[in-house]
Structures are given as C-alpha cells and as structure tokens.
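This section describes the prediction task in plain terms. A model, or a person checking by hand, is given the sequence of a single protein chain and must write out its three-dimensional structure as a string of tokens. No templates, partner chains or ligands are provided. The sample shown here is typical of the held-out split.
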Amino acid sequence: MKRVLIVVAVFALTVTAAMAADSSKITGYISDSMCGAKHMGSGAECVKKCIAGGMKPVFVTEKDKAVWSIDNPEAVKDFYGDHVTVTATADEAAKSVHIDAIQAAK
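The expected answer:
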C-alpha cells in the first residue's frame, strides 16, 4: 500500500512540475466567445453583457489577437473586458488556456 501512495505522490509532483514548466506570462484581454477580438480594449460592457447572456469568456492575445478558450473560466470572473496579464498553460491542440494567475496589465 505504501508503494502505491509513493507512486501516486511522485506522479502528482511530476505532473505539477510539468504544468508549471509549460506556463508562461501572456498579455491580452478577457473577452467573450461571440465577440472575440472585436472589442479589445473598448467593449467591457459588451463583454459583460454577452457573458451574462450565456457566452463563454475567452482570452485574446494582445500580440496577434488570437482567441483562446479558457479551461477554468471562474479564474477570470472579475476581469471581463479588462486588459490583463495571465500566467497560463496553453493547450495548442485544443486552442485553450488554463489560467494559473491573472492581474491587470500595466
């Protein structure tokens, strides 16, 4: 039984370390799945209204205006429509990000 627990603990630490190694800081905007990059920097009220209407929050990169779905949308609930810097792990194949930390962009 101890061996199983040790194997599980080692696996959990390995996964956590791998995820942390793949995370990076990215600046962009929190938008909604309907408008995407359309309102970057000027449509906070529209973003909030669309999300309240059932659209999903998305992350739009500032550099290339790429739209990424957010795996953990509860992490961005206080930042709808805002210019932010996130620490996130990206899943290129799914075009999604898991946000580990978020703050207002400087």
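For orientation: The helical segments are 2-22, 44-52.
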